[in-house]
TrEMBL record:
Annotated organism of origin: Priestia taiwanensis
UniProt record similarity statement: Belongs to the class-III pyridoxal-phosphate-dependent aminotransferase family.
CDD domains (alphabetical): OAT_like (cd00610)
GO-annotated molecular function: pyridoxal phosphate binding; transaminase activity
PROSITE patterns recorded: AA_TRANSFER_CLASS_3
Organism ancestry: Bacteria, Bacillati, Bacillota, Bacilli, Bacillales
Name assigned to this protein: Aspartate aminotransferase family protein
Keyword Protein biosynthesis: no
Amino acid sequence: MEREYLIKPFLTKQYTEISHGKGIYLYDKSGKEYIDGSSGAVTVNIGHGVEEVVTAMKEQAEKVAFVYRSQFTNDSAEQLAEKIASMTPGDLNWTFFVNSGSEATETAMKVAIQYWQEKGMGSKQKIISRWMSYHGITMGALSMSGHPLRRKRFVSLLEDYPIVSPPRGIEHAEELEVAIQQIGAEQVAAFIAEPIVGAAGGALTPPDGYYERIREICDKYNILFIADEVMTGIGRTGKMFAMEHWGIVPDIIALGKGLSSGYTPIAATVVSDRVMAPIIQGSKLIMSGHTFSANPLSSAVALAVLRYMETNDVVAQAKKNGEYLLNCLEKIKEKYAFIEEIRGKGMLLGIEFSPTILNTNIIDVAFEHGLLLYPAVGGIYGKDENCCLVAPPLTITRGEIDELARRLERSFASYERRMDGAE
Ligand code: PMP
């Protein structure tokens, strides 16, 4: 066997090579077509090969691709931050750019801790999070993640943050209050949650009232609320930000993935005026940052993505067509006993499978049938989720949704025949 040089996720797996993509479709080197039913890792919100983005990328690269943020500012980053402020609710007006969702949540964590330090309450350092959550792979972000599989190897190095239950019922919001009382509010900086649980929960959606109660508890005990909208943000759920479904304004929002629709790495930590105020008065700098933070090229790309979304009314399309897709999935569910639940909002939908089957096996069959799905694993120690996400680009048309549904059904039928030994 020829030796390899690229470290891929599974070192012994033979990966298919993609040659190009257009809209919701990807094509491999043999010419096989795939529907990108998961937008990669729920990232490519506006689809592949959008000309406007490619043009913006080229124009910025020709002007200047990189300047160091400690030496200069640049127009693209300034404009992007202003655009984000115009989109976010409440007084979420300040943006700190990073390069990945993990960095965005970890920066949120640091900003929260710094905020309390600046206010003379330096003992508030703990971040409460939920089981069945994923906030990122770096050590700080992993400390906050209720994702047993990814934590396992490093558990002795991690802070023991996740303690409250996944948001299956309104009663689970009450657990936050109990946890704060047990730890002591003077030790707690923030609570972090994915508005709709993505990679670790298969689009698990809290009931109405849950986040209203979370906000109340955070305010009562002087605790910041961080919404990790890395997956749910930028229109994915049919609103620009998923927290808007419940009318709740967080203190800090983490963004990533859809911010650039995958065209280049960029992510962001959006901070409220209230949280920034003591930092501006005190240290006058956020104690974090990366070489590539706020680089002109990524900023120009993200700006082009957001403008494209606005011009083409992409969020409204995601809401409308998301309902149509949900309906298609509900109909498919009727025919297959191994599907337990369909859930989610907009174009972030989840299928929960019965424990009798394995999500990754279904996902492999769908791959053969030219449909990409995203596995959702997470859970609480000893009880993993068994779901997949159906999350195509927000720009998918009705006709394309019909084709996605056909391929999904063909995959399920084929899987069932294989289980029966007939295929
Ligand atoms: N937060 C959430 C909610 C995510 O879904 C992810 C990625 N799946 C991350 C954080 C981490 O983002 P990244 O992989 O870009 O570091």
